[in-house]
Amino acid sequence: MITAKAFLKMTTGAAVAALMALPTAAVAQQDMPGEGTTIDMARASWDTGWWQAEVYSQLLQELGYDVSRITTLDNPPFYQSVAQGDIDLWVNGWFPLHNTYEDDFSDGAEKIGYVAKGGALQGYLIDKKTAEEHDINYVEDLTKDEIQKLFDANGDGKADLVACPPGWGCEKVISHHFEAYGWNDDFNAIKAGYSASMADALGRYQNGEPIFFYTWTPNWTVGELPPGEDVVWLQMKETKLPEDQADLADATTVEGLKGCRGEQPCDLGWPANDIRPVANSDFLANNPAAAELLRQVSIPIDDIFAQNAKMNAGEDSPEDLEAQAANWIEENRDKVDEWLDAARGSAM
User: Fold this and answer.
1) Rounded distance, CA 186 to CA 212, Å?
2) CA end-to-end span of the chain
3) What architecture is domain 122-271?
4) Which of 63, 202, 246, 330 has its CA 20 to 30 A from that of 26?
5) Residue ranges of the chain that CATH labels 3.40.190.10
């Protein structure tokens, strides 16, 4: 083994000869620090996060890691599994929305890096036509009996709200809202599969019927139903967040939000979120190249919007996702190579 001190004392010719004599495996290990290591990766049950997972998977493979499968999990089983080491990571953490799960993972896993910092908005929307005809600016306006009937698709006397499936972070917050604002007698929360429920709402909208739904960004819904054109964001007169987000009550307003009803800034009643990787702590300690890659990578919100639109248009097969991720990586190759070089350097 040639020490750094000995190498510096060599003549140029001797140094070149010494470098050429280094084992090929050592050079390969520097380029592929993950070689021989399999990563058990998860992705969220909402399909708008699947493409980001595929991008990270392919980048990890460029470092030599074997990402043989990506398991789709709901929030509770993921955060329990990553803390226990049964799953190594995912890149679909939403914070502060997922603060409620921190007790489940904080002893064995951690947040690291940012897929997208800020800009991930959430809130309640209705169709623009109904909002303008009935001067609806706030979610609370929908609790009036005559307004509820407009959004009652199943005849139970309550306004039907496309909400979130059980196990999603947004489902917990919406359930909190129902209790905190006393909405149980006013709204019917539809908790079936989100994509199917939104497809049904889109069909009703196209038939000229009012619609009421929760959504987040980036998401295909705001591409299919642009705020300010087809739908509008409703504001909250008072912010009532779950206890684990209570310190963010002053962070729920967005200045200049397109399609927001009422005066600006727009108070959505939900704080903006960061989309973040969450990984097992032992995995990060044992894989510095992977850890550094997670710190380095970021994906512009607009690029996620664009991919989600393609997926909603039918390009949603596993092969489509793989191709879309590969194309994005090549289109951003200069930046990607910087991230990979930083990751390789951390493993030296």
Assistant:
1) 13
2) 15
3) 3-Layer(aba) Sandwich (3.40)
4) 330
5) 34-118+274-346
Rounded to whole angstroms, how far apart are CA atoms 186 and 142? 8
Domain with CATH 3.40.190.100 in the chain: 122-271
What pLDDT does 30 receive?
Answer: 78
pLDDT above 80: residue 12: no
Residue 272 near residue 279 (C-beta atoms within 8 A): no
The pLDDT of residue 131 is: 98
Residues in the chain: 348
Q: Are strands 187-190 and 70-73 parallel, antiparallel or unpaired?
A: unpaired
Sequence-distant (≥ 6) Cβ neighbours of residue 43 within 8 angstroms: 49, 50, 53, 70, 71, 72, 73, 90, 91, 92
Give the percent of the chain with pLDDT over 90: 85
User: Distance between CA 244 and CA 98 in Å, rounded?
Assistant: 9
What is the CATH superfamily name and number for domain 34-118+274-346?
Answer: Periplasmic binding protein-like II (3.40.190.10)
Enter the pTM of the model: 0.84
**DSSP letter for each residue of 142-201:** GGSHHHHGGG-SSSSSSEEEE---TTSHHHHHHHHHHHHHT-TTTEEEE-S-HHHHHHHH
Angle at 258 between CA 253 and CA 261, to 5 degrees: 70
Residues 103, 110: Cα–Cα separation, whole Å: 11
pLDDT of residue 68: 84
Split at pLDDT 50, 70, 90, the class of 124 is: very high
The pair of structure tokens assigned to 118 is 């800020």
